[in-house]
Amino acid sequence: MSNNTPQSDTERTDDPTDDGMAIQTDVSESVDDSDAVPPSSTVVRSEGVSVWYDDDQALDDITLEIPENRVTAMIGPSGCGKSTFLRCINRMNDRIDAARVEGDLYLRGKNVYDADVDPVALRRRVGMVFQKPNPFPKSIYDNVAYGLEIQDVEGDYDDIVEQSLKRAALWDEVKDQLDSSGLDLSGGQQQRLCIARAIAPDPEVILMDEPASALDPVATSQIEDLIEELAEEYTVVIVTHNMQQAARISDKTAVFLTGGELVEFDDTQKIFENPESQRVEDYITGKFG
Amino acid sequence: MATDTDSQQLDGFGRVSRTAGVAFRYLILAATLFGIVMLGALLVYVTAQAIQPFTADPGWHLTFFLTLVLPTAAVGRYIYRRNPAALGFGATAVGALLVSLMFAGGAAMVFIDILSPMTWFAYVLALAVSAVAVVGFERLDERLPFVARLVASGAVVALAFYFIPSILLSLPIAIIGWIIILLTLGGGVAALVALRVARGHGRRRGAFAGVAAFLGVGVIALVGPFAGIDPLPAAVLAAISFVPTASYAALTAVERPEKRVGLAFTGTVLGGAFLGAAVVDVLSFAGPDSWVDWGFFTNAHSGTAADAGLYPAIGGSILLMVAVAALSFPLGVGAAVYLEEYAPDNRFTRFIDVNISNLAGVPSVVYGILGLGVFVTYLGRPMGTVLVGGATLALLILPIVIISSREAIRSVPEETRQASYGMGATRWQTVKNVVLPRAFPGIMTGTILSLGRAIGETAPLIMIGAPNVVYDLPSEFTSSVSAMPLQVYAWASLFASEEFYQQAVPAGVVVLLVVLLSMNSVAIVLRNRYEG
């Protein structure tokens, strides 16, 4: 796969289990058809993913399917492996020497851990937003255009930058100061800048690792509104340890508990109102964690 | 239980002895002061020896006290009360002017006696042509594979540097020296000013400021002869010192109105100095009979201490510095980037880590022997040339450059790297676009500090056989070279006499120290501005 064609379709394979089964499971497990999340095709599918850091197991046999154009939340106590799972999707764990991944993780039907997958090319199709806002010490414009430049995206950069900033709900605040440094913005603006940067090259999936945990309540609610809007066009996977946030913005929720175990994965409403597992109920009602 | 305790009245909490702590505190304070006071006393003694302040007319001292010291103290105190940052700005402007004036003097010397402006112009032209070609290949032909672009760029660079200087220099035309300086240095400064202004104030004002800077250099070059300075050095001084300092002052005054009052301090210092000089001249008060006079900077070594000067040694030090910087900067930064960003963490790299730290502590005389063995004996280069001296000193500071560059690279936050890798950047793209720009000020600081160490080294130069006395400036990289510390050493050993001890040695030491301290101050300013 060529580095220069991030939008190419080479990753669509003829994997037979790609779409249909996921919808079946989702629908059959929902409590009430009227409240159920409407069917949607699967973008990311993990089958028996386990991760070790040296000898410590961080994730234990995770199997789940992330639907397209939905917000999927991963919640759980600290150290439960939810961030580790997020980093498996774009293979950011490759950068840690001690990390070892087993199992299969499919993005649009292509196993991203296949030997022929270039992790750099993979990351060009998966945007990522981090816990701490981390704009580059460059101008606002250059921050948003960074992905376009390194990926050699063709097109009118001015236009793409403007559209990305508009979608990240930041355009009105920064349109007169595109040349000033991204680091001069407030924390919430910086995080929206990072979101604009992540969506500028038009990725398939956007991964967010506790994107609002370093922000004040006002900035947090702006980011939450933004995530809900983004889900109209993008598949969003968000890690959070704020349960109310997961309940507010996500369509599906995965609950990880200590030991890197995926205890329950279902529609958000069902998880919060009527979880199957007693442990999940205890966690959600605040009895532990 | 709780009520019980509350009802009991405490008569006190007792005392905890601090005797040992107090003793320790004053002991370490004494140790700190001891070092500083000793060094300070030495510096004052040497400076007094070199400058001989008491040979001046008391009227001279009184005049400068009244015109310079008193007003500076008063204005400085007033500004400090209003806004300490403004005083910092005013003082920085004075310091920038003095330090840049010193470096500009060195550069002017290079253009007058070492590098003819025409040769300089030819190489600048070659550099410009290759830069345009390389950028052009990168921009226009992204369809070409990387290797083809690399080969084409390499070919253009090689051809430009091979043909342009030889053709240009063989042509029977000669452009007047100061016009060349105006075009190259003045144009460069104007471009920098224009870019900086355009970034904050829009393109039109940027272009205007650039043109103004360019014209400023030209006007100063033309006016120079009326102040007794030839157009060529006047243009160099303007391009390296006056115009950049003025741009800094003007930009800060426009962008930070609250600091504007600091300019009063700058004005007081400069105005006081000029006024004092004029008054002293009119009333004919004699100044100090300083050994660091104009002759000391422009003469070569002489048998009589009063006529001895540092000129060839200053030129040699400048050339050595150029060679050291050109050799150690790319090697050191490259090694630092490899070790920080690429090298796997295994036994071999840890072994290299430890050894780089060890190499930084190896005595300089050992590097001298290494240089003598490798460059002179093994490679058969002639002894004591700029190239051999530069290469030896570059080896000497290479470990320090590597260590300080690694520190700077390590201080780039991991989140920034993550952001870049998360966007799908390759390692090279991350290093080029994110890590190096962010680490650059730190790398520059470390490099300047280690260049400062190289310029003060004597032992390696003695080992590689640099001559003690050179009467001419080195004209190319293969000519014999002396250096400031070597010249001082020669005065103190070979020509040891009461005369030289009392006059030439302190003067040389003062000049050397001023150069070193100015380089260090540049490094410190860089570090405070970008890393604070």
Helix content of chain A: 25-40%
Which runs of chain A of at least 5 residues are low in confidence (pLDDT < 50)? Answer: 1-35
What global shape of chain A is seen? globular
Quaternary organisation of the protein chains: heterodimer
Beta fraction of chain A: 15-25%
Structural class of chain A: alpha/beta
Helices of chain A, by number, come to 11
Features:
heterodimer; A: 289 residues; alpha/beta; Rossmann fold; six-stranded mixed β-sheet; four-stranded antiparallel β-sheet; 10 strands; 33% helix; disordered N terminus; B: 532 residues; mainly alpha; MetI-like fold; 3 domains
Description:
The complex is a heterodimer of chains A (289) and B (532). The N and C termini of chain A lie far apart (43 Å). Chain A has helices spanning 20-29, 82-89, 119-123, 140-150, 157-167, 171-174, 187-199, 217-230, 243-249, 268-273, 278-284, and strands spanning 42-53, 56-67, 71-75, 99-107, 110-111, 126-129, 205-209, 235-239, 252-257, 261-267. In chain A, strand 1 (42-53) and strand 2 (56-67) form a beta hairpin. Chain A is of the alpha/beta class. Chain A contains 11 helices and 10 strands. In chain A, helix 4 packs across helix 5 and helix 5 packs across helix 7. A 6-stranded mixed sheet of chain A has the order 6-7-8-3-9-10, sandwiched between helices. A 4-stranded antiparallel sheet of chain A has the order 2-1-4-5, sandwiched between helices. Chain A is 33% helix and 23% strand. Chain A has a domain at 69-94 and 118-284: Rossmann fold. Chain B has 532 residues and is mainly α. Chain B has 3 domains: 20-55; 58-295, no CATH class; 311-412 and 440-531, MetI-like (MetI-like fold). In chain B, 78% of the residues lie in helices and 0% in strands. In chain B, helix 4 packs across helix 10, helix 12 (311-342) packs antiparallel against helix 17 and helix 16 packs antiparallel against helix 17. The two termini of chain B are 53 Å apart. The mean pLDDT of chain B is 87.
